[in-house]
């Protein structure tokens, strides 16, 4: 999955409209539309800000890394361990 599809997927999962995302970035809605249509590519600065908004790596946004991450900021170490165990269990279930 390339950048344009990944951006749209992350935006819709976050419940954001193109306008809302554009406002958070300080750009226009049409620029977001161009990104999602693969008609423009973001600058490194915008790419970095998008990664922070969606709590993913820039490599994930660009489609270079297929691993999705979960932001565990503010979650206790014990709860993070539980999340890891759950993820491992779900991965093993699919094998």
Describe this structure in words.
The two termini are 23 Å apart. The mean pLDDT is 90. This protein has 6 helices and no strands. 63% of the residues lie in helices and 0% in strands. The longest helix is centred in the C-terminal third of the chain and has 17 residues, at 77-93. The chain has helices at residues 3-13, 18-25, 29-36, 44-54, 58-62, 77-93.
Question: Can you lay out the helices and strands and say which pair or pack?
Answer:
Elements (H helix, E strand, L loop, with lengths): L2 H11 L4 H8 L3 H8 L7 H11 L3 H5 L14 H17 L2
Helix pairs in contact: 2-3
Structural classification:
mainly alpha
Q: What is Rg?
A: 15 Å
How can the largest sheet be summarized? none
- Low-confidence parts, pLDDT < 50 over ≥5 residues? none
Beta-strand proportion: under 5%
Q: How far is it from the N-terminal to the C-terminal residue, by CA?
A: 23 Å
Average pLDDT works out at 90
Order of helices and strands: HHHHHH
Oligomer: single chain
Helix content: 55-70%
* Shape by Cα distribution: elongated
Name the descriptors.
mainly alpha
């Amino acid at each position: 999955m390339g950048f344009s599809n990944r951006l749209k997927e992350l935006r819709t999962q976050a419940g954001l409209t193109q306008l809302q995302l554009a406002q958070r970035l300080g750009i226009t809605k049409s620029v977001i539309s161009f990104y999602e249509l693969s008609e423009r590519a973001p600058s490194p600065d915008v790419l970095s800000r998008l990664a922070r908004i969606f709590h993913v790596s820039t490599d994930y946004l660009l489609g270079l890394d297929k691993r999705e991450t979960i932001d565990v900021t503010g979650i206790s170490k014990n709860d993070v361990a539980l999340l890891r165990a759950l993820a491992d269990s779900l991965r093993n279930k699919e094998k």
